Amino acid sequence: MTELSDTHVLILATDGFEQDELFKPRQALLDAGVRVTLASIKTDPIQGMQHDVKGDTIVPDLLLDDVDTEDYTALLLPGGVANPDTLRMNDRAIEIIEEFADDEKLIAAICHAPWLLIEADVVDGRRMTSWPSLRTDLANAGADVVDEAVVRDGQFITSRMPDDIPAFNAAILEALQEALEEA
User: Fold this and answer.
1) Would you please indicate which residues are annotated as catalytic (active-site) residues?
2) What pTM was estimated for this model as a whole?
3) pLDDT tens digits for 77-117?
4) Where are the extended beta strands (E) located within 41-84?
């Protein structure tokens, strides 16, 4: 396995992120030597959730407005209900996703996070999965929706739920490895 320290992953999140969907992929990336930056709409601690119960908080590294997508290899979008619902109404969050998509960089989204991909208008013709309640939204936006633990379609990796995190993490690390080998 190639050293992943040359990769840099951006995570977008705000209050209401599903705790395991941010912390577990983030830790897997850090354990693999990946540099990780968390951007949000504020630099105060953001509140994680364990389903409908408050979980841990985390302090973002920078504001969305300070993100330069050229600095990153990939984008990670954790779910939770409130997190992507808030971020999809933020113009800069959507611009960041569009920039990663336009640059054909890896974008990984789990659970409710595909709402952000729909808002950025990048799902048409893509094979994807999500939390069950979003599947109609994905299909209406033109995605080929499947019910699988993890789905990779080109630069996009999607997963359904916290139970899928091991497969999600493995797919992200594999895609980062491939990107390094192709560079």
Assistant:
1) 111-112
2) 0.97
3) 999 999 999 999 999 999 999 999 999 999 999 999 999 99
4) 46-50, 53-58, 62-63, 74-77
